[in-house]
């Protein structure tokens, strides 16, 4: 592009009087073409950004719901959390047999210092009815709260709440995602509940 300053209107008139018409026309065409080639429109830039970027909602929708991103400072607690998620998912699916298996695995994972938690998990494993399993699951969630929250070293977990569980008394559960999948009612009221707390580690 020509580095000289663009002549003002009054200067152009003076040049027009002394310069052949063809030369003045060529100069103006060259000036306009050079300016247009260096310009970019906001619309074009916005379109490119829209194509290249993915929104957080779209990215989250592509992640499997049953894979936890949470990291715990203790390997035993990490395994217990995985067992807990398997138990929760089984209750969401109204699957008492799978819930019993997951709870049994959890009971086997606890060390001797967590005897009360081990007994609660074993009671779920020994129960063959969903309503009994869900009652013990609620008690387990209350007792396991400090274990999960204190040992969370990275990522995040969610504490969710169902206000209608147990005749309106309410009950909590933990999840690796904020999406509501109610373990206390299963398919009958799958999305009943709210996010009570987002807990981040680190």
TrEMBL record:
Matches recorded under InterPro entries: DUF3347
Residue ranges of every copy of the DUF3347 domain listed in the record: 80-149
Signal peptide: 1-34
Keywords per UniProt: Signal
Keyword Signal set for record: yes
Name of the protein this chain belongs to: Uncharacterized protein DUF3347
Species name: Neolewinella xylanilytica
């Amino acid at each position: 592009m020509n580095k000289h300053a663009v002549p003002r209107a009054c200067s152009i008139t003076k040049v027009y009087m002394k310069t052949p018409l063809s030369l003045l026309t060529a100069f103006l065409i060259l000036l306009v073409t050079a300016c247009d080639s260096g310009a970019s429109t906001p619309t074009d830039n916005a379109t490119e950004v829209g194509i290249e970027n993915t929104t957080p909602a779209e990215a989250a929708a592509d992640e499997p719901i049953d894979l936890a991103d949470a990291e715990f400072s203790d390997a035993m607690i990490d395994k217990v959390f995985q067992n807990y998620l398997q138990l929760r998912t089984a209750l969401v699916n109204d699957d008492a047999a799978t819930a019993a298996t997951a709870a049994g695995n959890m009971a086997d994972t606890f060390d001797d210092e967590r005897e009360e938690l081990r007994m609660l998990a074993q009671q779920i494993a020994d129960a063959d009815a969903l309503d009994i399993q869900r009652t013990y699951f609620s008690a387990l969630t209350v007792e396991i709260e400090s274990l999960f929250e204190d040992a969370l070293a990275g990522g995040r977990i969610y504490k969710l709440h169902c206000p209608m569980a147990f005749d309106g008394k309410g009950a909590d559960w933990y999840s690796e995602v904020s999406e509501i999948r109610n373990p206390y009612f299963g398919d009958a009221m799958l999305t009943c509940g709210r996010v009570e707390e987002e807990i981040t580690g680190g």
